[in-house]
Design a protein that fits this description.
About 30% of the residues lie in helices and about 20% in strands. Helix 2 packs parallel to helix 3. The radius of gyration is 17 Å and the shape is globular.
Amino acid sequence: MSVPTVVVHRDADVLAKAVAARIITRLVDVQSAQGSASLVLTGGSVGIATLAAIRDTPARDAVDWRRLDVWWGDERFLPSGHPERNETGARQALLDHVDVDPSRVHVMVGPDSGLSAEESADAYAVELAKAARPEDHGPAPAFDVMLLGMGPDAHVASLFPGMPALYDTRPVVAVHGAPKPPPTRISLTLPTIQGSREVWVVAAGEEKSGAVRLALSESGPVQVPAAGARARRRTLFLLDRAAAGKIPPGLGRIASP
C-alpha cells in the first residue's frame, strides 16, 4: 500500500475547489491514457461541496462524462430520492448537470427496491465483479480515484471503529447499528478501498484534527478505520488547516497561503 501524501489548504471552501480541480485533471489524464475512468464518490459537506465546485467550473467540460463510471463508497439504506442519501446529494450537486451515461452510474439501492440491506450489498458486489478486469486482481475494479470523507471518530465510508465490517473480506457489506443515523448502511470494505489505484481522504474542520493525526500514525484500522484507507499507487490526505492542526510539523505540504 502507498504511503500517504498530505496536502493542506487554507479553508474548507478552498479545499473543495482544489479537490474539484484535482478530480478533473485526474479524470482527463486517465481517459486520455485508457479511454474511460472510474470515480468513487463520498457524501458529507466537503464531498458534496467538491461536486458542486466541479459543476460550477467551465473546466468540467474537459471530462468526457459519457466515459466515466461513477460508484459510491457507501450509502445510507434509505429510499431512492431521500435527501439523506449520498446519491441524492451527488445528483443535485453534479450528476444531474453533466452528461453521464445512466448505465454507468452504479447506485447502491435502498429499501424501496424490495431488497434487504444484505441483498442490496450482494447486488452491488455482483455489479463490482462485472466491472472488474483481470488486471484488477480482485472482485472489484481498481478504481482510478476513490474519494473518502472522514468522521471525527476516524470512520471512512460506513466503516466505523470496532464494528464487524472492518473484519469483512467481501467487497461490499451491509452495516447495521451504525453509531450515527441512519443505523443501516451499505459500505465498501477495506480490501476494496485498498484495491483502488488512488484513494483521496478529504477532511475539513478542527473536529477532525484528532482523527487525522491518528489516521496518519501507526494506528490499526480496526480502531482507526481511516488508517486503513490506503491505495495501491497513491494515497492523498487533502485537508484544510483546521483538520491538519494536530499532525506533526512538516508532515503536510501547504498548498494555499
